[in-house]
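Lab notebook, bench 4. The sequencing result for the construct came back, and we need a structural model before the next group meeting so we can plan mutations. Quick request posted to the team channel:

Model the 3D structure of this chain.
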Amino acid sequence: MSIPFCFRYPVRYLIKMELPLPYNPQGYPPYVVYASWEATLLITDGGTSVPEPEEDTADLDGWDVGGTASTPRESSLLIQKPYHRDEIDEVRQGSPLDFSFNRLKCLDEIKVENPRSDRILKCPPLGPTSLYYSRSLWLSYNKLTSLRGLVELVNKLLEQPLSLAWIDLSFNKIRCLDDELFLIPNLRTLYLHGNCIFSLVEVSKLRKADKLRNLTLQGNPLESMHKYRSHVVNTLPQLTKLDFVVVCEQERQILPSILPYVPPLP
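Done. Here's the predicted structure in token form:
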């Protein structure tokens, strides 16, 4: 008498996709994107079968710096490509990508091949797909009123888009913070000083940027409001520095005694 058997093996599928750039006058190679999902492989006396995945776990950015699959994360819409070990230092040491002082009114006007090099003496190094190795994007001293197209721009500029950690948007004409700003998952430093932000409601949107540590808002109309700094620090507990001044623990401790007596902000 034969004894039926059944073995279950968890498997992870990985597929590779090549996505052409929407704007590609220079004929750059396409982006390489990886997607993965999990299923269970069944081996029985009747043969081998692969059932459908129990749920859709497609993951476009679950690839760590070592080049192995990692736990799926919430998609940021930024394209993640596998790091090679020799690329890590290039990204960390890359100069800021500087598009300041260009009188830009919208992000679509940026010419990928023309970053400034006079302020920082050199441009960031180029990667294998002729995109830049950098963790910093400078867009200061322009005429930007909106951040629409930010994610597309970052994908178009950076060899490793998810490495972006610092965006300088100072001295523009920004009134509202577009949702695209919160799709930069590793953003740690954001300069917004010298803009046109009036409301603390706009600042409160930055709670979504849970890795944000360094923020500037001075020079906005918001700064003239009573106890402006206390309100911002209370609204964004993840900050360690505001307007180039460290947020110390003592400052946080006295917030409850200050804020109840402050007139509500509009």
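Residues 126 and 132 are 5 Å apart (CA to CA).
Will bring this to the meeting.
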